[in-house]
Write a structure and sequence with these properties.
The complex is a heteropentamer of chains A (about 130), B (about 270), C (about 675), D (about 325) and E (about 140). Chain A is mainly alpha-helical and about 130 residues long. Helix content of chain A is about 50%, strand content about 0%. Chain B has about 270 residues and is an alpha/beta fold. Helix content of chain B is about 45%, strand content about 10%. A four-stranded parallel beta sheet of chain B has the order 2-1-3-4, sandwiched between helices. Chain B has a four-stranded parallel beta sheet with strand order 6-5-7-8, with helices on both faces. Chain C has a five-stranded parallel beta sheet. A five-stranded parallel beta sheet of chain C has the order 20-27-21-22-23. In chain C, strands 2-1-3-4 form a four-stranded parallel beta sheet, with helices on both faces. In chain C, a hairpin with a 4-residue loop joins strand 25 and strand 26. In chain C, helix 2 runs parallel beside helix 6, helix 7 crosses helix 8 and helix 7 packs parallel to helix 16. Chain C is globular and about 90 Å long. Chain D has 13 helices and eight strands. The radius of gyration of chain D is 21 Å and the shape is globular. Chain D starts with 5 loop residues before the first helix and ends with a helix. Classes of the chains: A mainly alpha (about 130), B alpha/beta (about 270), C alpha/beta (about 675), D alpha/beta (about 325), E alpha/beta (about 140).
Chain lengths: ~130, ~270, ~675, ~325, ~140
Amino acid sequence: MNNTELKKEILRISGVNVKKCMKCGKCSASCPAYDEMEFHPHQFASMIDNGEIEPLLRSDSLYRCLSCFACMERCPRGVEPAKLIEAVRLTAIRKQGANRMTADDVPQMLDDNTPGQLLVSAFRKYTK
Amino acid sequence: MGVIMKVTYFPGCTLKNKARDLDEYGRKSAEVLGITLEEPKAWQCCGGVFTTANDEIATKLSSVRLLRSAKDADQPLVTVCSACHNVVKQTNHAMKNDIVFRDRVNRYMAEETPYNGETTVYHYLELLRDVVGFSNVAMAVKKPLAGKKIGAYYGCLLLRPGKVLGMDDPENPRIIEDLIVALGGEPVIYARRNECCGGYVSAESPALAEKNSGKVIDNAAAAGAEMLVTACPLCKYNLEKYSSKLPIVYFTEILAEALGIKEEVNE
Amino acid sequence: MQRIGVFVCWCGSNIAGTVDVHAVAEALKTESGVVFSTDYQYMCSQAGQDIIKNAIHEHSLTGIVVCSCSPRMHEATFRKTAAAAGLNPYMVEIANIREQCSWIHKDMLSGTEKAIILGKAAVAKVNLNAPLTPGQSTVTKRALVIGGGIAGIQTALDIADAGFPVDIVEKKPTIGGKMAQLDKTFPTLDCAACILTPKMVDAAQNENIRIYSYSEVTEVGGYVGNFDVTIKRKARYVKEDICTGCGLCTEKCPQKKVPNEFNLGMDNRRAIYIPFAQAVPKVATIDADYCTMLKTGKCGVCAKVCTAGAIDYNAKDEFVKEKYGAIVVATGYNPISMEKFDEFAYSQSKDVITSLEFERLTNAAGPTSGKLLRPSDGEHPHKIVFVQCVGSRCENCAEKGKEYCSKICCMYTAKHAMLIRDKYPDTDVYVFYIDVRTPGKAFDEFYRRAVEEYGVHYIKGMVGKVVPEGKKLLVQASDLINGKQLHIDADLVVLAAAIEPDKSARPLATMLTASMDTNDFFTEAHPKLRPVESPTAGVFLSGCCQGPKDIPETVSQASAAASKVIGLLVKDHLTGNPCIAQSNELMCNGCSSCERVCPYGAITYEEKEFRMPDRTTKLRRVASVNPAVCQGCGACTVACPSGAMDLNGFKNNQIMAEVDAICKM
Amino acid sequence: MQTVTTKSLCERAASLLGEGTVAAVLGWKRGEFDYDLTPAVFTAAEELTEGFIYNDFSGANLSKYLLKKTREIDGKILVFLKPCDTYSFNQLLSEHRFDREKVYAIGIPCSGMADIQKIRKIVGEGITAIEACENSLLVHTLYDDEPISVSCAEVLTERCLNCKSKKHVAYDELIGDEGEVLTSNRFDEVEKIEALSADERFAFWQNELSRCIRCNACRDACPACTCEKCVFDNPNSGVQSKAPGGEFEEKLFHIIRAYHVAGRCTDCGECSRVCPQNIPLHLLNRKFIKDMNETYGEYQAGEYDNQRAPLVNFSLDDPEPSDVVKGGFDRA
Amino acid sequence: MQDVKEFKPVIVAFCCNWCSYAGADLAGSNRLAYPADVKIIRVPCSCRVNPMFILRAFQRGADGVILCGCHPGDCHYSTGNYYTRRRMSMLFSMLDFLGIERDRTRVEWVSAAEGAKFAATMNEFVEKVTALGPNKRLEDLRCKQ
C-alpha cells in the first residue's frame, strides 16, 4: 500500500475525521503514557493527515498507548486520537508474523497475582 | 427486601479466579438488595479490551452472544468488572448505532432474528444507583463504614468513552462516592481517580504502570484517603503491585461489609 | 388589460455571460400584456433606471418586469424607480435571473431557456397585480432597553441624548452589568469602574431615562412603533423612593452568610444588601431567600435601624404596562459553567478559578481588597497558569462547550498576565493557548508587551489535567512547540471560560418573536449590512446578546443601535407593508380558522349586515384584518377553505399564474 | 326499526309549535317512496301529521340545513338530531355558522339506518312499500304477493355498521335513552387500502373517482362544506369547474374537498350516502382523520364546542412530512 | 412527442422569502450548480403555500413540487412553518394514499445560510424525480400541448 491508500485505510477503520483537529494538543496533554511514546496522540492525527504513516507503523508508541481514552474524552473537536492509534496498531500487527507478543512471553510476565484480564487484554492489543 | 429484579449477570473470566472477591461479595450483596443475578449457562471471555476499529468483527462476537442471551431472557445485563463493562457496553452501542457493523455481525452470526442492541447494559454500580437506589442501599446497611476515609478509584474503563458508556460525568464522577456515602463512609475526592493505572501495558512496560499507579496512590494518600476501592481486577493488581501505601479493595467488598454479610461470604 | 414593460439586465457579464439577454427580451415581447421589452447592461444604474422611467412615460406602462438579480437586492430600487415615474411601486415584479439562473447554470442554452420561463412567470404575475398603498401607523416616542449593562446604558444615553424618553429594565438590583465587576480594561488598562460609573450616574440623572432595576419584561405585544410591554417590578422590600442608600441596614442585618454574587460567591454579604458602593439606584434590596424576617417573621432589624422608614416587608411584585415605539435587547452574557470540565479540577480546588473570578480577586473592591491571594489559604501565589479556550471552540461537546470562539479571552488573559507581572514580578505566569487572537486596534501590540516586556510565558498547547495535591496544583500540559509534556506545580489556575448568552434571552426572544441562532445569540437582520437590527421590525440588538464582543465593540454597537432607534422614533408615522391579508367579506364564512392560525392576533370578527337574495338584510359574522398588525405571512389564506382570505401582492391567482407559466412547457 | 316513533316525535313537535316555542320544525318527509325521505320544514301541526316521518331511512343529517333556515325563518327552529348529527351540529356551532339561540335541538336515538341498495340486492327491484317491525323490515314489491322480510342488521348502511357514537353531544331536549360513545372499526377499510401497493392504490382510486359525474351532491350534503362561496364555484379562485373535466379534475376536486374539511369533518358519512355513483368518498375523509389521530393525537371534530382542529394547531415537536409519509404509513 | 432519450423534469420550488429564497440566492452567489429544471416561486412564508398550488402545478405539467421554508423555530413569522409542516404532512400522506409517487413532493427546511444545502437538496430532488419519469398520475391531459 502506498501512503494515500494506507491513510485511507486507517481513516476508514478508525472512522476518524482528522481534519477536525485544531492542533490544540489537549490529547497529548492528557496522555498518561506521553513520556513512553516517541509519537504522541496529536502527532498521530497530524502525521496520518500528512500521510506519514510508515514511521508510526514502526514505532513502539503503538504498544504504549493504554487505550484509556483520555485523549478521546478531552478532545474539544471530537477527533478521537485513540482510535487512530488503534487503527495504526492493527495495520501493523495484522501483517504476517508481526505479532508483538507470543505465548512464550507469558511466563515471565506472571506472578502470583496476575489477573487473567491482563493477559487477555495484552494479547488483544499485541497479537493478531 | 423482596426480589425487585432479575438480571442476567456476566462475571467474566477474572472473577472466576483471581478476582473471586469482586464476584462473591457482589453476588451476596445483590441477594440482600433484592436483585437476582442469573448467570447465563454458557459465556465466553469478553476479550478484556474493546477494539475501536470498526472493521473488527470477530473480537466482539462473544459480547454480542452474551447481549443476545440477555435479550432472549428479557433481562438487563449486569457486569461488575470495569473491563467487561467497557467491552460489552461499547459493543452494544456499536450494535445499536453502527448500521454497517451491525449488519455484518448479524450476517456473520446468521441467527434467526437479528440483534440490534436491544439489551440494557448496567454496571453493578449503575444497578445500585438506578435500580435499587442508593437511598435503599443506605437503608439496608447494617454495619456502617463509620468514619472510614475511602478514595474511589475509577480508572479509565468505567467511565470512558463517556458518551458511549453514559455512566457518569467522566471528569467528575460521583457514583462510587455516592455509594461510599450510602455505606456510611467518607469519600475522599482526588483528581487522579479517573487516570489510568497502566492497564495491560504493564505486561510490556512495568515501568509505565509503576509510574502511573504510584501517582494515583500518592494523590489519593495526599488527599487523605485511607483505602481505595475499585471495580477492576487489573487496576487492583497494578495498584497493589507498585505501592503498598494504601490497601486496595473491591467496591463489592465494602458493600458486603456494610451490609453485614462479609463474614458470611468468607465462611 | 395591463401594459407591461420588460427590462432585462445584463449585470455586465454576470447575467449576459450565461443568458442570451436579447433572446430573453425578444421572447417576452410576445407574452400577454407586454408592450415593450428591452435589455441593458446595468438596469440598476442611473442610465438603466432612466430607460425604465422613459418607457413608463412613452408606452404608458401599467406594470414592470425587471429580469435581473435577486429581488432581495434591487426590488426596492426598481420600486422607487417606478414610483418616480408615477407608477405604483407594487406594479413591479422581479425575475431573478442572476442568483437563481445565470450564476448556477453553465450553458447558454439552458440558462436562456430558464430565464425566459422565469420572465414569463413574472409577466403572468404582473398581469394580475393591482396597485397597493401601504397603511400608516403612529409611533410611540419612547424606547425600551432590556438590560442595564454597558451596552444598555450606552444605548439609553444616546437615545435620551436625542431627546427621546427611554426606559432601562434591569433584572438585578443595580445597573452596571458585567463591566462593573471588571478590574481594568484592555488594551489601555483604564479602570473599569472609573469609566463605567460616571455613565451609570449619567443614566440615573438623565431626565429622559427611567431605570426599572430589579425588574423583568414578562409580556410583549404589539408591533413596531406600538409595542405593549408588561414589566414585572420584583418586590425588593425596600421603598426605592425613600431609601437613601446609607447602608446602615446592610451593616446591621444579622444574616451574614449569603454568598455574594457580585464577588461570584468568593465572600459573603447580608440578606439586605447594596451590590456595590457605586450601585445605581443606590438602594438596598432584601434577598427573600435568606431574610429571616420574610422567612420566619422574626427579626425586623433592618426596619428598626432604617431612619427613613424605607423597609416594607409586605411588598409584592408589581406589574407596569407601558407603550414603546422601539425595543433594544441588551441582555448580555455569562461565563459558562465549569462543571463539565473537571479535568481542570474546578470543583475540586478553590484555587482553580475562572477569569471573571480573577477580576474580582484583583479588584480593589473585591473580596481580597485587590491583593492577589489564593482563595484556599490566602497565600500569595508564585506560579499561575492560565488556560485559554475552556469550553470555546468545542466541536463535539455541544452539551459541554460552545462551538464558537468567545473572542474576548485572549485579550483579557494577556491583561491579567501583564497585571500580575507588573504588580508581583516574583510570580511566574504561564498562558496555555491554542491560538492568540488579537484583531483589534492596539490589541496585538498589547499582547506582545505581555510577552516581551512583562515576561509572561506563552506556551502553545492545552492543559490536559490539573491535579490538586497538597498545596499545589499539578498542571499537566502540552508544549507543542518544544514537543514536550509539561508538568507545572502551580499555585493558582485561571480558566478562560467560554461565554454564552444570558439565560433570559431565549424566553425574551419568544416574546419578541425575534429569531436566535442555535447558540441562543440573537440573529441580526443582515450579518453585514444590518448588524444591529433584529429581523423583527422595531427590535434592535446591543452588545453580547448578538455575539461575543469586547467593550469597545459593545459600545460601538450600542450607539449604532441607539441611532437606529432614534431614526425610528423621529418619524411620526410608519409606512407599513401593503402586502398583507385581506378578507373578502362576501365569501367569508366567519368560521375562525384564520384567526386561530394568525401569529399576530391581527384578525378580528364583526357582525355585518348583508343583503340576502330576497332583498332582506341579515347579520353575518365576517373576518377583518388589522393592517397595522398583519405582517403578511399568509397562514390565514391557507386555513381559509373558501378562499375569502387572500394576501395582497401574493394573491392566490397570482401565484397560480406563476405556477402555470412555469409548468406550461 | 327505530326506538322512537314518528307519532311521538310529531306530538312533541306539534306541542312546541302550538305553544309558540318554535316557529318551524326541521325534519324528514316522505319522498316518492317510503325509502327516499328528504329533509323538510314544517310550520303547522297538520303538515306534521301529513308528512313527517322518522324511520330507518331518515339518514339525512339535518344540522346543515340550519344555516339557511335560521337565516330565512324568523323565530326558533326545532331540529331533530340523531347522535351522529349532533357532532356536525357542534362543529357548525364552533365555526359560528348559525345562531344557537335560534335553534331548539331535540336529540333522538338512532338504531342505525337502512341501505336501500342492500335491500334491493336481497329483494330485487320494484319495491313499493317498506314496513318496519322489531328487528326486520317487511318489503312489499310489485312482483311478490307476500312482503319479504329482511333483517335490519343485514341491511344497515356502511356508516352505521361503523357507528362511532350513540351519544348526543348537544341538544336542548332528549327523547328516548342516551347512548354511549362506541369503539368502532371505522379505519379498517382505510388500512386495507393503505396495505396495497402504490400502483394498486392508484388503480383503486382511478376506478372509483373516474365514475364521478361532478353532480356536487357530496359537497351539497356535507355539513362541513358550508362555504358562502365554494372555491369550485368561484370564477376568481382559478379552480372553478362545474362539469367533469377528466381524470385530474376529479382528483383535484375530491382531494381539495377532503382537505378543506380535514379536521372539521365529523365522519357523518353523508358524502358517501348521497353519492349517486356509490364512490366511497368517506374513505378520503377517514384517511385524514386517521392520519391526524395517529400523528397529532386523537381528535373528534364536533365532540366539543370550540375545539382547535389539528390543522389550525401545531406543536413544536410535530414530525416532519417525510417522517409522516415514510415512517408512519410505510408499506414499501 | 415525449423525448424518451432525455427526460427533463419540470420542478416547481416554493421558497419562503426570508430563509429559503435567501438560501437559494446564496447558492447562486457561491455558484453552486443545480439543474435548470428547478424554477423558484417566491412566497412570503412556506405557510402561504396552498395545497391547491401544488395540485395545480402537477395539473399543468410539473413532475415534482418542493416546498422550502425556514427551519422550525426560525420562522420569520414565528409559527408559519409549523402549520406548513402539518398541512404538508397530511396532504402528502393523502397523495400517497391515492397512489401518487412519494418522491414527487418534498418539504425541506433551508436557512438563509444554507446555500450549499439548497443546492444539494435541489440536486437530490431533481435526481429522484428524474428517476420517477414524467408525472402521469396527476397530469391533466387537457393541459398538454
